[in-house]
Amino acid sequence: MIEISHVDKWYSPTFQVLTDCTTSVAKGEVVVVCGPSGSGKSTLIKCVNALEPFQKGDISIDGIKVNDPKTDLPKLRSRVGMVFQHFELFPHLKIIDNLCLAQEKVLGRAHDKAVTKGMQLLERVGLKEHAQKFPAQLSGGQQQRVAIARALAMDPIAMLFDEPTSALDPEMISEVLDVMVDLAREGMTMMVVTHEMGFARKVANRVIFMDRGEIVEDAAKDDFFGKPRSDRAQKFLSKIL
Ligand code: ADP
Ligand code: MG
Fold first, then answer.
1. What is the pTM (predicted TM-score) of this model?
2. CA-CA distance, 239 to 159, in Å (whole number)?
3. Which terminus of the chain has a smaller tally of CB atoms within 10 A, N or C?
């Protein structure tokens, strides 16, 4: 579903942020990306959605090359859900309207269909009774669940997450992870930047470890947690586990 092939990226002529990154995420697979701060995880995931350009290599989603100038990027992005650290809901819109906006504007869904879909998804993330509230009236964990529901409303073919729980108070982390675990078990294709190794252990198929812009390790979950091959990954794991 996601093919990343020999990607190099420079933020400036003297600063190479990604070096020869190659990996893939098969349909229905859950791949967790971890690694030290500044190692290029966010940059890589943004390249997947063409939110950042890259200078060498190729990335394709469902066979469509994101770095082909002929690709309709807004259309492609509408098919790939993205959830960031900060939930970025529209503050002036009620929760249900947050869920309807892109369904109507981008997919051209009729309002009543969008509302029905939005309510189904709010129910799925346990927030149906909050549909008429504004984002500021919800906790951080609830807002992040709304952000996930909003992404799902677009019927994405894959979901990208960039540290979706790292801005949350500890007691709210599990409610967001639970939603993500359900999604993974339902077969969603997911690429998830996170340091929540409990999540990785539960649902990841593979774990990628990045350091200094390189994919240092790309292993089946049990191999990764059993014994990472590289010193760098071992050191990283010993610090966070
Ligand atoms: P991570 O998500 O693993 O913490 P990032 O992808 O955010 O890493 O950043 C990788 C490196 O690129 C860091 O050194 C960061 O400071 C730098 N960086 C990130 N975004 C930009 C940008 N827009 N312009 C220049 N440098 C950036
Ligand atoms: Mg990051």
1. 0.95
2. 28
3. C
